[in-house]
Amino acid sequence: MEVCIFTEPQQGASYADQLAQASTAERLGFDGWFRSDHYLAMGDGDPLPGPTDAWTTLAGLARETRGIRLGTLVSSATFRHPSVLAIQVAQVDDMSGGRVELGLGTGWFAEEHEAYGIPFPAKRFGMLEEQLEVVTGLWSTPVGEHYDFTGEHYRLERSPALPKPAQASVPIIIGGSGPKRTPAIAARFATEFNIGFRDEAVVADMFARVRQACRDIDRDPASMRMSVALPTVVATSDAEYRRRLAAIGADPATFADVNIAGTPAAAVEKVLRLRDLGADRVYLQLVDLRDLEHLALIGAEVLPHVR
Question: Which of 8, 130, 140, 287 has its CA 20 to 30 A from that of 74?
Fold first, then answer.
């Protein structure tokens, strides 16, 4: 099983904070460092210094790390024209030596769109599908040929379809819990299906739906990587556990109901249950990314037992 770190920098983190966490995660042996793609903090707390752009951040980290996978969980289809996104991701992939993964979704946080004047259509699945078509179409067009696309939302004419990523195929992550359309889109476009913030029964159900969606289009379900993302708080004492919960505004009475929580042994047990459900990769969401002691604890006491 692969174990990645996933964080939410819009809650208040500088580029230096993100670099420190990503570099530490790499040194400790985690497989990947992924970040959300948001421009507005959620809930209470100090959002300073303000948001950082996901792909600008990943470009910097691409040059300051050496082996860890880097990506978004997930970028919003509302934020970038797909041609621009394809160029950005291809360039960051080249800068990283082929370590980038693209998570892409419909977007959901209406308030951030209002705050920054970004259009937020009521219906966005069509946009997402067309973005995936355009991005993958641009990357897969042979060098020297042109790419054309005409859809409801986007139109490209004689695009040179450059640049190309360093990887022959950049992994694409599609996530969500929609029972029909999400599995169908994942089966068509994704390397990985991700389900986040849900209990184990929902995880098992969505994995089964995605596998069936693959069979429906004659795709081998085994070719789809399955992953789970969950908030994570691990500690060796009750006082430390409660301190870490308080730092992210989490409720001690309910946090462990779904999430990866408690002692290192409890965290290992939860991750292994997710593996038994079919997860090939788990994302540990660490919202307080400045708490590098937390990351070190997980690297020492959890990571070796779930590989």
Answer: 140
**Residue carrying structure tokens 């042109």:** 146
Per residue in 217-270, pLDDT tens?
Answer: 999 999 999 999 999 999 999 999 999 999 999 999 999 999 999 999 999 999
The packing angle between helices 125-140 and 82-96, to 10°, is 50
Report DSSP letters for 174-242, one per residue.
Answer: EE---SSHHHHHHHHH-SEEEEES--HHHHHHHHHHHHHHHHHTT--GGGSEEEEEEEEEE-SSHHHHH
CA distance 135 to 170: 10
Q: State the pTM of this model.
A: 0.97
- Using CA atoms, how far residue 52 sits from 4, 11, 74, 231, in Å, is 20, 10, 14, 21
